[in-house]
Amino acid sequence: MNLRKKWIHWWAILGLLMGLSVFVSSVFAAPQATTVSESSPQPQRYVLDNGMIVILQELHTAPVVALEVWVKAGSITEGEYSGSGISHYVEHLLFKGTEKRGVGDTGSRKKSGKEIPSKFICP
To answer: Which InterPro entries match (predicted)?
Structure first.
């Protein structure tokens, strides 16, 4: 086979594969997202005995459960005691060390590729 026929052969195979991939992706495509209608139940608010607020909204458009937890804690909620609460204590543990971790351990963990999530680092 000469070079021109080989190229035509490969382009034909490539075209066939691309057409097949479009067909397969359309057959197995995810269903279109449904929008929350006006008749959807409104969120319900509950206050637990320990003061925690729970907001619940049921949407039966997909067979999944999603959960988010928000906590009113951290330096922003310390008010006039800013710098003397738990967030300041955790900051000292992270950056000034503990009995098991020295002052430079946090930095060496970062350099070694082990990430420290930003949610554990106080502003």
So the answer is: Metalloenz_LuxS/M16 (IPR011249), Pept_M16_N (IPR011765)
Q: Which two tokens stand for residue 2?
A: 């000469």
The DSSP letter of residue 5 is H
Query: Structure pTM?
Result: 0.32
Q: Quick one: which of 86, 113, 116, 117 has its CA closest to 101?
A: 116
Burial zone of 102 (CB within 10 Å; 0-12 exposed, 13-18 middle, 19+ buried): exposed
* SS3 assignment, position 37: coil
Q: Check pLDDT > 60 for residue 113.
A: no
**Single-letter residue type at 106:** T
